[in-house]
Amino acid sequence: MESHSKRIIKCQICFKPMKHYNARIKHMSEEHNIRHKFKCHICNREYNIKHYLATHIRQTHGHKNKKCSECHMAFITNHGLKKHMLKHTGEKPFTCTICLKSYARSYTLKEHMRAHADKRICT
Fold first, then answer.
1. Residue 32's domain spans which residues?
2. C-alpha torsion angle, residues 85, 89, 93, 99 (rounded to 10)
3. CATH code at position 53
4. Per-residue pLDDT of the chain (123 residues; tens, 9 = 90+)
């Protein structure tokens, strides 16, 4: 079996070798103050790393083909659909370990836990 050699990507200014294209972009931005802007063709948002632009396009402007079976709202990701379904099921998977109150969203539980922390500080 033939072995494949890994491609080395070099800085175009100082020729420092890097393993990944995004590392070169970051290096050129930080070390040589050269900014590569990758612009979204839909909303004009800019990214310094091409992969971040691709992720943005997929997650923000992608096809909403994940449909809710209850109300037919559509989502780009399974994660978005799963979070939405909590509204229909009433499921509250995030439970406070102090008072056992439950929440549908993790960030709501975190806000609730801060209230417990504030009470402990005040007493």
1. 15-61
2. 140
3. 3.30.160
4. 444 446 788 887 899 999 887 888 788 888 888 777 888 999 988 787 788 899 999 888 988 889 999 998 999 889 999 999 999 999 999 999 999 999 998 999 999 999 888 776 554
